[in-house]
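From the methods appendix. Each design record in this collection lists the tokenized structure first, followed by the designed amino acid sequence. Records were kept in a plain field format so they could be parsed without special tools. The example shown here is representative of the layout used throughout.

RECORD:
FOLD TOKENS (80 positions):
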């Protein structure tokens, strides 16, 4: 896997791997390779989402126009 994979590329490839695994037509070895690749891609996606969240936190501005950091609350967290 190349080092500078975009979030979208990683997510697209991860979705393909999941579909292949769900079909259940791969050999055990192929499934394990797909699972390992999927875990790497998942880490890439999570790292980039974390970086994006940090950027969003930094650009949220207060009503006075002063830049302040606020914790970003994701919708799924609100449901818990």
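DESIGN:
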């Amino acid at each position: 896997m190349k080092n500078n994979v975009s979030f979208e590329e990683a997510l697209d490839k991860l979705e393909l791997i999941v579909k292949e695994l769900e079909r259940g037509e791969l050999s055990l070895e192929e499934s394990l390779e797909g699972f390992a690749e999927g875990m790497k891609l998942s880490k890439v996606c999570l790292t980039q989402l974390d970086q994006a969240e940090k950027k969003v936190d930094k650009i949220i501005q207060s009503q006075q126009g002063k830049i302040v950091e606020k914790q970003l609350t994701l919708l799924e967290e609100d449901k818990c």
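APPENDIX NOTE: The two ends are 35 Å apart (CA to CA).
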